[in-house]
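User: Teach me something about this protein's shape.
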Amino acid sequence: TVKYGLKAGGGPQDENCWEAAVNDSFTAVNLFLNNRFADALALLKPSQSMYHAMGYSSILVMQAAMTFDPKDMDAAMTSLKEALQTCQRFRKKTGLIESLTNLWYRQPADNLTEEEMHAELCYAEVLLQKAALTFLDESIIGFIKGGMKIRHSYQIFKDCQAMENVMKDEEKQRSTHIHFRGGISMGIGSFNLMLSLLPSRVLRLMEFLGFSGDREVGLSELREGAATNSLRSILSTLSLLMFHLYITVILGTGDGNLTECEALLKPYSEKFPNVSCGVS
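Assistant: First, the predicted structure itself:
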């Protein structure tokens, strides 16, 4: 049995182990889409790797979002906290001075290993999910905490995008790069699309705070993410479907692109005919 996660000394394991964890997560997504929820969770249960931890907590978050059961919400929040701790262990270690400097002036970390870059991406995704659950607290403190987590998550996605832009061609040929690029497309695309829906006055304030709310950029990034066979392609697909089928109708911003929706759904309906989580 492959052991994932940390060596006895606390450092990351060899490259093959965390790449195997990525493959496990990809398999778990397919199990989830085939309505085999228990099997997906069982596969991801050994959560000492960042991808096992992120995948396990993500499934619990989706379950909580569908049921709104307080017990499911608590289980998801506990899992997210544990996933953040797991991802943190794989992130690049920074000194006190560098950490304090980043509070005022963030710049993309350099000289990161591939594993550390994936750790940044996983951390940002888990942080964003935790922020979404925090908002459901419906208190002022919960709103403020959620907002701070969202800003931190967005900055990490931007850092990952900057790192990907300066990657060498041979680095982009690695088997795991498609999952890294897919995560960036999902994160940057979702943020831009969500923020573009805000009233213009609020959007200007958000842009002043460092966010970006360009709808065309958001749609373009999500389309790129949905078109790839990556771990996060389903999330990009769901974001586009939500925009076209629900948000445009609710906000009255125009007709959704039904032709695009049919094209997005076709590969999933063929591969997962029994899916019941909104992709059918």
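Now, about its shape. The longest helix spans residues 140-165. The mean pLDDT is 83. If you'd like, I can walk through any region in more detail.
User: That's plenty for now, thanks!
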